[in-house]
Predict the structure.
Amino acid sequence: MRIVEAFFLGILATYLSVGDRVLAEDRFPFVIPGDDARSGTATDFSYLSPQPAGEDGFVRVVDGRLHTQSGRLRLWGMNLCFGANFPTREDARKVAAHLAKLGVNAVRIHHHDLRDAPDGIWKAGLVGGERVFDKEMIDRLDYFLAKLHQHGIYADLNLHCSRQLKPEEGFPDHSRSGAMEFNKYVLYFEPRMKAELKKFCRAYLLHKNPYRSGRTRVEDPGVALIELTNENAFSTKGAGPAADLPEPYRSEFAAQWNRWLKRAYADDRGLRKAWGDRREPLGEPLASSDGWAKDASGFQWHALGGSELGVSFGAPGPQTDVPAARLDVIKASEQPWEQQFQVMNLSLEEGRLYTLQFFHRAEEPRSFGVEVAIQYPLPWEDLGGTTQIESSSEWQLHTQVFEAIRSVDGQARLCFNLGGSPHGVWIAGLSLRPGGRREAIPDRGSLAEGTIGIPVDERWGREALADVKAFMQEIEVGFTNEMLTFLREDLGVRVPISSTQVNYHGWEVAAQTSSDFTDVHSYWHHPQFPGRLWDPVDWTIENVAIETNPLTNDWPECSMLMRCAWRFLDRPFAYSEWNSGEPLRYGASLVTTAAIVGALQDFDAVFFFQYDQGNQDWFRDRMDSFFSMNGQPAKLAMVSAAANLFRRGDLAPLVELAPGTLHEQTHGGFALSHRLGVDPQRDAAPMRFEGDLRHPILRSPGDAVVWDAREPASAYVRVNTPNSRALTGFVGGRRFELGDLTVSVGACPDNYACVVVTSLDGQPLAASRRMLLSVVGWAENTGMVWNADRTSVGDEWGEGPTTMHRIPIKLGGLAVQGVRVWALDGTGKRLAEGSLDGLGVPPSPVSAFYELVRE
């Protein structure tokens, strides 16, 4: 840490960042070393794990929560991905000790099954026609798990993450098909894939770890949780992907579908009666392009996110008397819905047929979406007319007949979603009319011959679409329960198991599985890739603080509060992936958000995604990837500081419940005042949130937590508990009273800061003899180069060491009366004594960590 010490002697060159020349005293290098296990420092939170993981027995479910023999267990964890699951022995010892010091007590073994050694579990090539584990990688994982457990860190083992069955194993290479990627979706109904998964589970879970007294993984109480398959949607995706599957998978799905129909309806006559042929006379158009020779004729267009859409009328159509609207994409958006051409204020009648017809062509082959749906500002809802169009340079006629899902009076719209592609589109001869003709079996298939097609759009009618959904849900539930029974009864798994994340299953399916706990994922501002997915150069991330918008639920901006209601109230709940993309300037508060929401909602586990994804550079001094928290000092500092809120229980769970149903969740606006979740037995509608959705102020009982987003430029979250206080958001230039502690934050970049004061001896702050003050803003690498919009650094991440902005701060009140203070380096080593009346103000010591001692 010579660089940090040199700073406190005043030696630091002028730093250039984002085009602005920043004075040396405004930034300082700060690194939390990945091999730091210095014990006894104020930053050592290993005291939260006083004994080896599993020392007090297997993890089990008691009264709907995770327990061991010692009582309630809360997991504060990290994901490990790809090669990070297989460190060398020397690195394993260091990493395990370091994670324990951070306050981490769980790791999620993830994406271990994608690659060959040394970044995955597989031996390169096949042995006897089969893919087998690499012995060295298995040994590395065994040793790493042993070291983790020794330091009180449990494991969450994932069984199917990203394995792609290969042609050499007898599975055709269709990896380019979205439904085939990582064998997800298809896994639910393809019997050979299920057999391969069982074979993997048997070999993986019954392997004996020589560093854990020869116990198999199912015999090892250091394993806390097991997840069957990661982010695997099936019925929630619908039958559309199945209809587009390559052979032999499409035929397998269709055969099972026809067998299901035969059990349900016996013959074609019964099927036609159930699905129903319908003919309704066509009425007057609700929307048409009759006036497009001159103007928009009631249609409008708009573009979001800096995109541009040009619209002109009177363009040549497919026929001389049919004019077209030309929709030019001047500047493409990332999301399809960010560029729209639409007609508003339509009315529909539930159960009535409607016919939508139009011609279309495109500059270059592309797809675009068409929807008949609820219009903004009401929550989006498909009204039965949503579909995807594949367009080419030749004019094509699109006709669809759909049944309105519900009645809407003047609040529906017909909309073309044109974003996500740079190529323009022409639309002509458009009409939306009540009435139409719908055949019960549009493709004229026969149940007797097993040739009924796969219902994927409105042509099939509500009854057929409902049946294919019920079929898929039955398949999904059957597969899941069979696999969970196999794990428990055949392999002897004793710890809680989940199937897949509930936001991929859906509540109806999740309620029918025998999963022991519920799991969910979300991200705050996931990176976006306008061109090639995961392009390391062409990507963006919106620099938005979560404090400004706690109740948003739009991808990629998903707030944790809006995910709380996805749990089942009678089961443990794990948030096994949560993070933002790097380098988000306001990412540090995502850690405190997880601790605050997790504590109030009484989560059982929170896993940040991710600590690391490789095994070659564990001890770097810089950020180098979208998600890795290793090398990101602002987030790591908060991982330790916020651990007491969640793990120690400084912030008590809420008492009052606000249950939802299998069909309607409780709004996240109640997440600070009520515990949310689904009660599968409940029919009554959940509470209605009447507050401001965009700029709310939310409070927990007694104002232990206040989230004030009424003014985005000054939005903040404050926490006031006896043993810990926290303040995050745009708090610069302001003074806050947190009970008997006053916090005054000086002007700083964006006036954004995260401040946590927590006792280290379990006493209230006013009586504590030792406390840690953590103060961070946002971290950047040395020489990191942002684009003009500050939404991307491309591949110019810069070098180490990471630097942070100075946050001037003053503390006062009884909570810190009689306290001395020392600035600490990234390991917790004392550097110099400072004053509570001017921390972070040169020439006083400047740091992210300060130790407070009452003598």
The two ends are 28 Å apart (CA to CA). The chain has a mean pLDDT of 92. The CA atoms of residues 398 and 810 lie 67 Å apart.
